[in-house]
Amino acid sequence: MKKTSKLLALLLALVMALSLVACSNNGPFADPDSGSSDPAESKTAESNQPSQAPAESSDPASGEKYVVGICQLLPHTALNAATEGFKDALKEEFGDNVEIKEGNAGGDPANCTTIIDGYVADGVNLILANATPSLTAAASATDTIPILGTAVTNYGIALNLDTTEDKVLGGNISGTSDLAPLDQQAAMIQELFPEATNVGLLYCTAEPNSVYQIETIQGFLENMGYTCTRYGFNDVNDLAAVTQTAADNSDVIYIPTDNTAADNTSTIADVVIPAKVPVICGEEGICGGCGVATLSISYYEIGHIAGEMAAQILKGEKSVSEMPIGFDTTLDKKYNASICEQLGLTMPADYVAIEG
Questions:
Q1: Using one digit for the tens of pLDDT, what is the confidence trace for 292-343?
Q2: I need a surface site. Which of 223, 230, 295, 328 has the fewest CB within 10 A?
Q3: pTM value?
Q4: Cβ-contact 325, 159 below 8 angstroms
């Protein structure tokens, strides 16, 4: 009887043990919501869950922000137009994704250096140098940040290179030129004043690009039979006196794209208008202040072209080192209606009056 009781007790214990095993067949670390602890089955279930939406993409081409620094030599109609054209081109391309910093040197080249050094310290993405002193300051300040010039007549002259040809410069500098064809400007003098014999060439001797233009156009004019005399002034302090000498000895005066002349057209006008001596100018801004006629490029357009070049550089489409110097190929014959009236001159029908 004792043996039977022991046997029953053992059987009962075995049944209870089997029951406990059956109730815990998912294991101690199984997910209570999962029907299996098999890793393969778990992975399959995970892959069937709806995936999360991808994070919003930031496209560098459309979302990257750029900082561009502009250094303009002085406030003047032509240079202002170039700056506006440049800014418009950048805004058209990047909208609010470009920050434009502007500095105006007020005609003092030393201030160009201060402005450019500030841009270099700020780590701007690109520098626009408006006029030759701004370009030379930028070239001295950095050889890594891309530099574009505008309203620069000749880059070889401005940067003391071995060539005077405007082409691909290499390095970190390119830009646009404000040089109109000097042979065609000489032809304009011949067209308007065929009876003149003496042409005075008025320019600032401190501006290498002005010297270059005077040397070049003098050759064209002398080949046409004119007698040319150079009248160089050092700065604004002797401008009036030199202009008076030129007016006393010339039938017509020519002024190139000269920054000092552009900033002081009223001083020139106060001499040449009473003397009844007409002035042919290298660009529209100077002509609007003291001249009678010009064959001029559009400064807004050369600024806009520089802005288009800047956009290509910033987007990584082109390197500044491979970009040729850009030109505005559209030329307009323009005249100053007010001064022409004061001098009793009538311009040909294909000349357009300067507005403003």
A1: 999 989 999 999 999 999 999 999 999 999 999 999 999 999 999 999 999 9
A2: 223
A3: 0.79
A4: no
